[in-house]
Specification:
- With about 375 residues, this protein is α+β, with helices and mostly antiparallel strands.
- It folds into two domains: about 1-60, no CATH class; about 70-355, 2-Layer Sandwich (HIT family, subunit A).
- It has helices at about 75-85, 95-100, 150-170, 205-220, 225-235, 275-300, 340-345, 355-365, and strands spanning about 1-5, 10, 20-30, 35-45, 55, 115, 120, 130-135, 175-180, 195-200, 240-245, 245-250, 260-265, 300-310, 325-330.
- It starts with a strand and ends with a helix.
Length: about 375
């Protein structure tokens, strides 16, 4: 451990992995302490790869949240939302074929992709050239800790079929992603659990940065960043959670969201289209364990998730590994849907629903 002249604490890991943080202290006269002076620590943490900074104040977990439902009201709120949304859910089996879009014929996928109880079809309002939605099981609602590996294995296998078909149709479209907004606080507009998968000619902003920085790290060190990160975290032990032959789970050093977990697929496959059924099963098992852990250990009921995949048709195993992030979102409230979803929070790409030109046209007369 060392400190620079700026008092940044640096813990050196394997290779060029560095865990850097800077602590500063704020003083206030707190009404919670009869207006005595209290001191709060703010930690600034730098991500070892992409160099983004996050801020941590551990006391913020104790602050009053007037807009959030107390824990005892969650079940009541959930029951209300589930019952109201179930009255005409487009994703439930009895409505799906009548109310969801169909794939265009040139992809050769048929009308929809079905793997077991997983059904994949085009998103009705897309923000990617190839943007599909897939239902996670037939039940209108599944609690976060109740997802089974079977449900997620079917979703992964169905997604891979889509990725392969799109890439076969247009080999320039090689950057896929699998994403999950769960419940309205995560910006999910539909209660029925579903994933969103996208595939474009260019990667999302964060995926591009992960790929570029990983390659840069390998060029400089002749080593794989993700292997070095795992070795570093394993040795330190503080944020290391678990590992097996397929993947490793960590609590993220410099998180982008609440209760953030990072999953790293350690097998040397960066192109998800090369996954076997066993690979899909192992990833599904890891995901469902992470969901269950966040639900029971951290009280998470709503989440966002993003998988950062390597390009289709390329082997990037020398410098990259498939990785993912899961963050928890606020508790569910009736009549509330968040507007920050997986794209904004976990890909660094805002989604706009109106054009700037239209905004200018409609507001101009009021100036």
């Amino acid at each position: 451990m060392s400190k620079t002249k700026e008092e940044i604490e640096v813990i050196k890991g394997k290779g060029n992995v560095r865990f850097e943080k800077l602590s500063r202290y704020a003083k206030i006269r707190s009404p919670l302490e009869k207006f005595e002076v209290v001191e709060q620590e703010i930690e600034f943490r730098k991500d070892p790869l992409i160099n983004h900074w996050s801020r941590i104040n551990k006391l913020r977990a104790d602050r009053v949240k007037q807009a959030s439902a107390p824990g005892e009201n969650f079940e009541t709120n959930l029951q209300t939302v589930v019952e109201n949304s179930a009255k005409k859910c487009f994703f439930c089996p009895e409505n799906l074929t009548s109310y969801t879009p169909k794939f265009s014929e040139e992809l050769g996928l048929g009308e929809r992709i079905t793997v077991g109880d997983f059904n994949l079809f085009p998103n009705l309002y897309v923000f990617s050239q190839y943007h599909a939605v897939g239902t996670l099981g037939n039940d209108h609602f599944t609690q976060l800790d109740k997802f089974t590996p079977k449900i997620w294995q079917e979703a992964i296998e169905g997604s891979i079929k889509f990725f392969k078909a799109v890439h076969k149709y247009d080999t320039n479209v090689k950057y896929p992603s699998i994403n999950f907004n769960f419940l309205p606080p995560s910006a999910s507009s539909i209660i029925h659990p579903h994933i969103q998968i996208i595939q474009d000619i260019k990667p999302t902003k964060l995926t591009e940065k992960l790929l570029r920085k990983s390659q840069q790290y390998t060029n400089e060190t002749k080593s794989n960043y993700w292997s070095d990160l795992i070795a570093s975290e394993r040795k330190l032990g503080e944020r290391f959670i678990v590992e097996n032959e397929f993947m490793t789970w960590l609590a993220t050093f410099s998180p982008m969201g609440k209760n953030e977990l990072t999953g790293i697929v350690t097998i040397p496959k960066t192109d998800i289209s090369t996954f076997t059924k066993a690979d899909s099963r192992d990833l599904a098992v890891g995901l469902t364990k992470a969901f269950k852990a966040l639900y029971h250990a951290r009280g998470a009921t709503s989440i966002n998730m993003a998988l950062y995949l390597g390009p289709i048709g390329q082997d990037r195993s020398d410098d990259y590994r498939i990785n993912l992030k899961i963050v928890s979102r606020p508790n569910l409230l009736p009549n509330y849907t968040g507007d920050i979803g997986f794209m904004e929070l976990l890909h660094y790409e805002p989604i706009a629903a109106a054009s700037p030109e239209n905004i200018a046209e409609t507001v101009r007369k009021y100036f």
